[in-house]
Amino acid sequence: MQHKLYAGEGVYRLVDAARLAATRYANSLERRSALIPLTLNRQIGAIAVAWAGVFLLASVPKLLFPATPLHGPADMLAIGLPYLLIAFAPIAGYGIAAGSFPGGVLTAQPGVRLAVYGKWRRLSVLEARKQPAYGPAGFMASMLVGLLLNVVLRSFEFLLAVPALGNHAPDWGQALFHLMAADVVVMSFFYMVCFVMALRNVPYFPRMLLFTWTLDIAIQMIIARQLGGMAELPLSVADSLNSLLHGNITKVMISAFVWLPYLILSDRVNVTYRLRLRD
Could you give the 3-state DSSP secondary structure of residue 122? Predict the structure, then answer.
């Protein structure tokens, strides 16, 4: 009997030790994640400019060897301008959002709450800032990185999947090239706006992200409708386009499925962006 008691105490000690180790590891990750937004806040301008340079450099083969021949400056402009817009869209998004929401300046809370699930008590700005859960650390830091990666992946997906088609391409080719480029430009702009709003604790960030997800899906559907209505669109191109657009929608839906519950229920999100604490 005494041996069983000793064995039981040993198990409890192991469980307590494992729990303590897990807590320490979680706290260590939390402290490390808090460095991510600080670093990004200092370096994001340089990162955006560097990204534009990298993308333009990667675009050079497309510009030198387009899928359609070039016959003058107009053709060069028709092909080159979309790549320039894609490169500078994140910079524009960052600049406009950073100018609209300067660091350290408080933004008023929305008058109407959309996230009403749960019981919460309001916090003043000073009370919220004293909370350990205040600021875009933890999983929010992962979301910040994810928003930046979204811009990078969507842009390189365009480089790899869409040929450079100029004024001498068929109508469906010109429409494909310009619609897909416009998609990347618009979404890179808005995902960067979301990034800045999240980084600077702007209360409207969750709503802007929801709007951006909705806009992303809507644009994929618009492209499918516009190009799908062209009778001359080759079947092989239509199949590839369908896979690309379906993949974009699927990625947005997965992101929303993963992050929406977090945006609604997370203590960190509610303290940081809604100034309220679970009651």
Answer: strand
Q: Tokens at residue 268, please?
A: 């960190």
What would the two tokens of residue 81 be?
């301008």
253 Cβ partners below 8 Å, 6+ apart? 217
Domain with 48, as residue range(s), is: 2-278
CA angle at 21 for the pair 17 and 26, rounded to the nearest 5°: 150
Kind of pairing between the strands at 120-122 and 276-278: antiparallel
User: 10 Å Cβ neighbour count for 77?
Assistant: 14
pTM, 2 dp:
0.84
What is the number of domains present in the chain? Answer: 1
Q: CA-to-CA distance for 176 and 239, rounded, in angstroms? A: 13
By the 8 A CB rule, do 189 and 89 touch?
Answer: yes
Give whole-number Cα distances, 146 to 140, 149, 195, in Å: 10, 5, 9
Segment 89-137, tens digit of pLDDT: 999 999 999 998 887 666 777 777 766 677 877 877 888 778 888 888 8
Left, alpha or beta for 107 (phi > 0: left; psi -120 to 50: alpha)? beta
Q: Which two tokens stand for residue 62?
A: 């497309």
Alpha carbon separation from 81 to 58, 73, 134, 174 (Å, rounded): 15, 11, 42, 13
pLDDT at 8: 56
